[in-house]
């Protein structure tokens, strides 16, 4: 078995004394693990950092074997290293991909959204937290837990949408919510494409996506969401 | 004879588990030890038995000590008001080799990990905060690896110590001594350019 692809490093662990076991999110093969011979060397250390974009060649005798990767660097995300918030975002993105995606199942649409996200976080460009929030919405879509924010689930109206039903994931307008409003999740305007997104709104949006990610986790083995995501939310809340 | 051979094989197997040694090099090392029994093997065995009996973590910094505080924490001259935070004892030894730091250390024993659920409590970060509070610390130097996990942990420590009012600094990143630009990765060149200084 032999294929070539490109992707992003999600995690790196030592494997023996000289090799590394890496997990990558690839364009055509989804989340995939493999061994990098010589991956523990100083020469390879920068290439195998989480978030780094790499060209890959995977080889194994049989398809279900772990296999070995040959890795070439494409883009570094070192710009995030000095920025506390960007580093939290980079770690959260890697951790969420490793947490949520099944192994060896391609997600081309999510990959297409993830590469630009890593690029903006890697350069610590302003506004990336809103991109991260939108990326989490897309991740929910890919996992089958997508939110329907197009119209009110009660009245059918497209106006004044302010809540999301925690059960159905559908938007609810203020008029449609009525007395049920306290039981619904607040819908930040930035998810409707309205106005600039403040840190508070992005944090609120992440609490919204977190509710449905928690549900996904509970229905797939009761695992808690990665601590890296919680650290990102805490860092954003401090900014606000 | 078979019993003696088994014991030697067991020794070889144990030696082969050490870093840097494989089965063949372990076999050569054991053969050398047996040939130089009085000069090498017996003193080595005595030293190993002594260290195995007495080695423990320093209750203050997490360095290896042979009972009680380690030499660095016990030395009053090292109470300079500076604490250098390192990932593990190997990093502490590396810093000591440089002879550049005269303060005390704090060994975390790991790094915050996004995937392995290693949190601040596992790393003794609350203990570091307590030390900073009680030891009249002027500066905390975070000397962690320039990796995503290392820098995530460094930023976490900086945040955790914000309220203490203590200066928190990190090591510089850039071109190593003897390094050639052509062989450096993009990230190191970016970091070096950001940290440029006037000549």
UniProtKB/TrEMBL annotation, chain A:
InterPro entries assigned to the protein according to its UniProt record, in alphabetical order: ARFGAP/RecO (IPR037278), DNA_rep/recomb_RecO_N (IPR022572), NA-bd_OB-fold (IPR012340), RecO (IPR003717), RecO_C (IPR042242)
Entry-linked SUPFAM superfamilies: ArfGap/RecO-like zinc finger, Nucleic acid-binding proteins
Entry keyword DNA damage: yes
Any single GO BP term: double-strand break repair
Keywords: DNA damage, DNA recombination, DNA repair
Protein's UniProt keywords contain DNA damage: yes
Superkingdom field: Bacteria
Domain DNA replication/recombination mediator RecO N-terminal: 1-75
GO cellular component: bacterial nucleoid
NCBIfam families, per the entry: reco
Family per similarity comment: Belongs to the RecO family.
PANTHER family reported in the protein's UniProt record: DNA REPAIR PROTEIN RECO
Function: Involved in DNA repair and RecF pathway recombination.
Name of the protein described by the UniProt record: DNA repair protein RecO
Lineage per the UniProt record: Bacteria, Pseudomonadati, Pseudomonadota, Alphaproteobacteria, Rhodobacterales
UniProtKB/TrEMBL annotation, chain B:
Similarity section: Belongs to the RecR family.
Organism placement in taxonomy: Bacteria, Pseudomonadati, Pseudomonadota, Alphaproteobacteria, Rhodobacterales
Name of the protein: Recombination protein RecR
Positions annotated as zinc finger (C4-type): 58-73
GO MF annotation terms: DNA binding; zinc ion binding
Superkingdom of origin: Bacteria
Any one of the GO BP annotations: DNA repair
Every Toprim domain range: 81-176
Keyword Protease: no
Matching InterPro entries: DNA_Rcmb_RecR (IPR000093), Rcmb_RecR (IPR023627), TOPRIM_dom (IPR006171), TOPRIM_RecR (IPR034137)
Function: May play a role in DNA repair. It seems to be involved in an RecBC-independent recombinational process of DNA repair. It may act with RecF and RecO.
The organism of origin for this protein: Paenirhodobacter ferrireducens
Keywords assigned by UniProt, alphabetized: DNA damage, DNA recombination, DNA repair, Metal-binding, Zinc, Zinc-finger
NCBIfam families xref list: recR
């Amino acid at each position: 078995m032999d294929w070539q692809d490109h992707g992003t490093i999600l995690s790196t662990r030592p494997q023996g004394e000289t090799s590394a076991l890496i997990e990558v999110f690839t364009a055509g093969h989804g989340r995939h693990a493999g061994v990098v011979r010589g991956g523990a060397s100083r020469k390879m250390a920068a290439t195998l950092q989480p978030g780094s974009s790499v060209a890959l060649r995977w080889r194994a005798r049989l398809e279900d074997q772990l296999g070995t990767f040959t890795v070439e660097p494409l883009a570094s995300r070192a710009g995030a290293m000095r920025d506390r918030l960007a580093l939290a975002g980079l770690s959260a993105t890697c951790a969420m991909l490793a947490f949520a995606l099944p192994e060896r199942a391609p997600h081309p649409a999510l990959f297409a959204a993830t590469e630009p996200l890593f690029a903006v976080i890697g350069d610590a460009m302003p506004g990336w937290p809103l991109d991260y929030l939108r990326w989490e919405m897309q991740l929910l879509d890919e996992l089958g837990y997508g939110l329907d924010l197009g119209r009110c689930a009660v009245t059918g109206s497209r106006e004044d949408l302010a809540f999301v039903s925690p059960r159905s994931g559908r938007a609810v307008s203020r008029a449609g919510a009525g007395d049920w409003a306290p039981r619904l999740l607040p819908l930040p305007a930035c998810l409707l494409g309205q106005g600039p997104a403040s840190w508070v709104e992005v944090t609120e949006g992440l609490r919204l996506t977190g509710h449905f990610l928690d549900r996904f986790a509970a229905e797939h083995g009761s695992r808690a969401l990665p601590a890296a995501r919680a650290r990102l939310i805490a860092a954003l809340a401090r900014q606000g | 004879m078979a019993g003696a051979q088994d014991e030697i094989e067991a020794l070889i197997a144990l030696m082969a588990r050490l870093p840097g040694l494989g089965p063949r090099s372990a076999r050569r090392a054991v053969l050398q030890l047996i040939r130089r029994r009085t000069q090498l093997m017996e003193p080595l065995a005595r030293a190993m038995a002594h260290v195995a009996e007495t080695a423990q973590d320093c209750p203050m910094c997490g360095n290896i000590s042979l009972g009680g505080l380690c030499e660095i924490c016990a030395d009053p001259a090292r109470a300079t008001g500076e604490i250098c935070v390192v990932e593990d004892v190997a990093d502490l030894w590396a810093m000591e080799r440089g002879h550049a730091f005269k303060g005390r250390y704090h060994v975390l024993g790991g790094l915050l990990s996004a995937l392995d659920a290693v949190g601040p409590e596992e790393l003794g970060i609350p203990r570091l905060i307590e030390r900073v509070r009680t030891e009249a610390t002027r500066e905390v130097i975070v000397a962690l690896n320039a990796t995503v996990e290392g820098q995530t942990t460094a930023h976490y420590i900086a945040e955790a110590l914000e309220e203490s009012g203590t200066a928190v600094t990190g090591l510089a990143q850039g071109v190593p001594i003897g390094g050639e630009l052509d062989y450096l990765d993009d990230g190191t060149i970016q970091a070096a350019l950001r940290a440029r200084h006037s000549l």
